[in-house]
Amino acid sequence: MQPYQNPNLDIAGRDACPVESMGHAVRFSDENQKRFAELLTRYPTKQAAVLPTLWMAQEEFGWCSTEVIEYVAELLDLPPSHVYGVVSFYTMYYRRPMGKYHIQLCTNISCMLMGGETILECLREKLGIGLGETTPDGLISLDEVECLAACDIAPMCQMNDEYHGPFTPESVGQFVDQLRARGK
Amino acid sequence: MEVKLLTQRYDNPESWTLAAYEKAGGYQVFKKAFAMDPEQIINVVKESGLRGRGGAGFPTGMKWGFVPKETDKPKYLCVNADESEPGTFKDRDLLTKDPHALIEGIIITGWAVGISHAYIYIRGEFGVPYYRIRDAVKEAYEKGYLGRDINGKGYSLDVTVHRGAGAYICGEETGLIESLEGKKGQPRLKPPFPAVVGVFGCPTVVNNVETIQAVPWILEHGAEAYRKYGTEKSPGTKLFSVSGHVNRPGNYEIELGLPCKTLVHDLCGGIRDGKRQKANIVGGSSVPVLTGEEADAVHLDYESCVEAGTMLGSGGMIVMDEDTCMVWALAVILKFYAHESCGQCSPCREGTAWIRNLVFRLESGHGTSADLDKLLSICDNMMGTTICVLSDAAAMPTESFIRKFRTEFEAHVGAGRCPIRGKSSHFLESVH
Ligand SMILES: Cc1cc2nc3c(=O)[nH]c(=O)nc-3n(C[C@H](O)[C@H](O)[C@H](O)COP(=O)(O)O)c2cc1C
Ligand code: SF4
Hints:
Chain A has seven helices and five strands; from the N terminus they run H-H-H-H-E-H-H-E-E-E-E-H. Chain A is α+β, with helices and mostly antiparallel strands. Chain A folds into two domains: about 10-90, Arc Repressor Mutant, subunit A (Orthogonal Bundle); about 100-180, Glutaredoxin, CATH 3.40.30.10. A five-stranded mixed beta sheet of chain A has the order 2-3-1-4-5, with helices on one face. Chain B starts with 17 loop residues before the first helix and ends with a helix. Chain B has a five-stranded mixed beta sheet with strand order 6-5-11-8-9. In chain B, strands 3-2-1-4 form a four-stranded parallel beta sheet, with helices on both faces. Chain B folds into three domains: about 20-220, Rossmann fold, CATH 3.40.50.11540; about 235-320, Roll (Ubiquitin-like (UB roll)); about 325-430, de novo design (two linked rop proteins) (Up-down Bundle). By secondary structure, chain B is α/β, with parallel strands linked by helices. Chain B contains 19 helices and eleven strands. The complex binds flavin mononucleotide and iron/sulfur cluster. Iron/sulfur cluster binds next to helix 15 and helix 17 of chain B.
């Protein structure tokens, strides 16, 4: 049987896109250097600081490029391959630049029961992009995610670190309009 | 009906602040605990009958008792705040509305087990719950409830909030430990169990947020008071997150043993638009589905759920009305497991993707009747053959959906399309 193969997904269905270069080296700001030093005091090994350091790096540099991965590896005395392994295992480390507003629509069971499919169609149409894409102006990225532990407000989405829902086809349109109004 | 032990402070204005928690009598119980022998506290928790609220329902006091007493290694506590079981959103509210109760629970657990450092492993997607618990930890440090020589007792405890980054498997306790060590969250073989060899090679207790949050109440009121609620074998209260086609979805703290019917039809206001309940997954998407009739007959305690052929799990209850297509619902659920398999074990890595593909095909109307038996046989091979139980968590629901709603699956084969929704799912086609 050979159905349903998406070339961008690996065998477990994960996004298998390669890491990309930003084209320039990176270095933490003075403030983040301090935060990083504090971070190391919270764990008995340096390696344990990989996830929080990547979080800080993504906050400062926007996404996890080759340079970011190499920088984090150097800070923690780890092979870059280890850090790449971590980045590619978790869904929240971005391997591409993201829009300013990142809409992640839940497509798990409770949201789907409450009309999530329709909301996804509305978003695709309103934004003119598909899943995994960013609007040409760089403002909004659209992704689907698994259950976000907010089934009481289904159908819902995460937008950056905020939760929004329950949506109707009308309210999701207004939601996009509000994001556009907030602008860059 | 509702019994508010853990959720008693939810209605306080600014319940998440240190001031509000102290005003409600918070940070007093740990002082009482400090006057007790650690062994005594473990005994109170054992007597209370508290069982893990993360899904497996393992007796908490017994788990603490497995940690070796004589060791020169530091001992760790990992609070499991990964909350990723589909349908579950109770820890989110506990962290958001009452984070200091979790910290007090950590202090008491820490004293009882001899923990030197507790890590709260919280899923990366959580924004507000993360900010709340992070700020609460800071407040507790400033007030001297955490850190060195707490309350002049000579006991020191550190707490660090550690964010995950999007992976369901990091909710599995050994996946969590691997992730905390800075690796991919791929579960470990057991034994050794975390109580003996856990994070950083040291004895480690892993407990769910709700479990730890029950500890202060139990210490304050005693084991006997806790046992007044619930059943003989499933004492106390449990939070249920109810979602799907009910009128009032949300978190409900109920006595264990409450009829499911009361929760769904009274507390949650019944099925929307006066429809019939077709199916109910009572404990999160990983447990076998019940038909509406079975759900109306079951009581919500660990034993009754097992007797009814399902599990209480995490208490993430997903209710489906008569218009739901069960093939479509299973397809949506299996999309999740195929995505979340960590890939270490062949039966899980291959199996989750394979059964997803087969059910997708059935949903689209292109399946064959032989697919059903093939599905059951793959599921059989996925159970009990892998490092962790994610594989079983995909196979068990599949098996139950087919067994209980087989005619619906067959109708898809016969009609060549979805006879319930009229068309097959455009969305599922797009994620193939
Ligand atoms: C695939 C999988 C995912 C899990 N996810 C969670 C989770 O998100 N939160 C949780 O508390 N327990 C989760 N568990 C259960 C944990 O492995 C563990 O049993 C639990 O954290 C122990 O705490 P407790 O005894 O207090 O329940 C999961 C288990 C499996 C197999
Ligand atoms: S059963 Fe699945 S998720 Fe668990 S360890 Fe094996 S491959 Fe990973």
